[in-house]
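hey can u run this one w/ zinc ion bound, need the structure tokens asap thx
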Amino acid sequence: MNNESSLSALTVPLERLQRLEPIRTWQVEVSVAQLEDSEVPLRIGDVLVPSDHLVAIDLVLDKVSEGVAVSGNVAAKWIADCSRCLRQIDGEAIAEVEELFEQNPREGESYLLGDEFLDLAAMVREAILLELPVGVVRCVNAQECSDEAPNYADVKNKASQETSESESRDPRWAALDELVFDEE
Ligand SMILES: [Zn+2]
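ok here u go:
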């Protein structure tokens, strides 16, 4: 593991927060690969943030009595196949974060504050995952999408081939097909 490069971007040395003139902001770009510590891709269903994409991290750090409060934005571009016309579409997940790092983190509430470093990786990963669109994703421009729409049976076939766990299509999912995610 290359500690040097991941330290520089995803881990904040606490010593820098304790100086007379402490750093207040943390603005870095890291590759998604640096966030995938446990071979878990940044993916929700068919929506993926590829490993070679960058995540922009723009944070304000505040020393508080409990630990360190972190707020700001985390952003990354995602890709997916339009569920109707199967063209690749993309979008940007922009997460607003406001989190607390403390020495004894509470599960789901706060993140672990290390002895010497504040490790941003888990927080960044979770923030992006929460902002990825869920359910059926389609072209934003409906006109463009329907122009070359294949017949619907093809779309269903592709969907069931790609999702190994999906057997026959549950009719209850039909309601989800009506959902359109507008990225405006
Ligand atoms: Zn489309």
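The longest strand covers residues 67-81. anyway lmk if its weird
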